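ok here's the first one, seq then struct tokens
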Amino acid sequence: MPSAAQSVAGLVRFSDTEAAVDSELLRGGKPHRKDLARRHRIHDGVVVVSTEISGEIIYAQRSGYFAMLATSDALRAEFMSGRPERPLRARAHVLAGDPGPLISGRGRAAAVGVSVVVTVRGRRNRGFLLGRRRLDLAMDGNEWQLAPSGMVEPANPGDVIVESVRRELAEELSIAVGTAELTERLRPLGLAIDLLRLRPEVCVRFDAADEEIDTLSLELAADEFNTARVVGMSPQDMNSVWSELGPPNLTPAAAGAMALLEHSEGFDMATGPTSRG
């Protein structure tokens, strides 16, 4: 959903209270969470989770990363297993009620993500940054995502989106930008939904100055990425990366943010990601 907002501040209305998570979903997703803990190094932490979406405003509370794995990431694992029975997804639909699980996060830890389209100056036109995630990561290993991206964490004081982007820019690109300046420079692109995990992604744009990023020596955080690339922001370059990678090799958040970027640039969406599956 493209954004009509002028600022990213206030797009997530966060109440620092514990979100109610359904015990049946937690039990059902526990084996998936334990399997990830056995195969990967993961630790619990506080994340911001969506309780309801109204327009492009996300109303949110706090929950835990492990709860997200058991009640959100487990939905994807259940679907990818290929089994026709999907009791966790059925339970999520029941808990969401009439608005449906794309609008309501009731009963789930539907962690809010933020994807940042960082643009840099190129030879012919601006480009944006993609990074391939390390294979050994618990979620979306070996897939390409926007750099930086991450789950939104509580911020007190401050806007949760702005503060999360500020943290991600520092951690993944070594860019330090103050809160007030960052609030002015971030442009909202819109809202995407990870349909398998049933969790929302706030997509924003940050135009880097020439001195902030040297694309010739570009390095992303080694604990998360193993490869970095710059994709040109032209219809031809975008079509090329869609054809090369396609949604199967992109994280859902990256695919959604790239589609929103195309929309904001006025590219012809008839040849965009939807037509390519």
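and now the second one, same deal
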Amino acid sequence: MTETQAPLTQGQTYILGHVDSELDRLINQAHFYSDLTMHVLQLAGLKAGMRVLDIGCGAGDVSFLAAKLVGPKGTVIGVDKAPEAIALASRRASSARLTNLQFLNGDVLELRLEEPVDALIGRLVLMYFPNPAAVLRRLLGFVKPGGIVVFQEMDMEASRSEPACDLFETSLQRIKQTFTRAGVDILTSLKLSRIFQESGLPAPRMIQGARVESGPDSPAYEQVTQITRTLLPLMERTGVATAAKVDIETLTARLREEVLARNATLVSPGMIGAWTRKI
């Protein structure tokens, strides 16, 4: 069975969960990558007055970026299957007094909209579907002819350290192995062009960006620790590493000490953005 023939199903549960600590981590991660995401949304052509659908919106951070671009006369609709995430996103929008945002709780594969949208967007969401092209094909039914489609996924293989930092590289390897053993395709970002075309879209334009970090105050150390903490139970269940080996409570400090001792530079996982227009 080919990917385009595969059944359209939701697939596995989001492996990182939606407890408060994970939602906080997602917000921190969103801040870490916000400039890179905003750049891709701007390149894709989001502008004032547009109606935008953000799938897998989580705590709402990509929706907030889109809301800045579409302005008060535009609308952004964020959708996520986790009620905890939607409740938090709604509270954040209310606190910021943003009236051009709407958040819906539900499975994107069961979504119904009364009006079509000018743009379909998503960040770090297609990687969690076993058949992303089929999911995208279904969502294209909500997009107007000529509408924008833009997604951004993570290239975990692009991360590195110079000079090499053993603990940093080991931590990244554990993260990649855990995702892979849990059934997540960590190469989704590199397959975006194929996914777009298999869904019926024209080949997209694409760009990759990354954070480059060094020094004692870099947020990169905590970023690595937070995702490791979230994945740690799954790391143990899948045989990637034990809690004792990871020593999560000291990981941030040890990462910082290693980078400073070697006066190293860290490159975060790359963020590959792809965008095109529906024919």
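notes on #2: The chain has one domain: 3-277. Strands lie at 51-55, 75-80, 101-105, 117-123, 143-155, 160-162, 205-209, 212-213, 265-267, 270-277.
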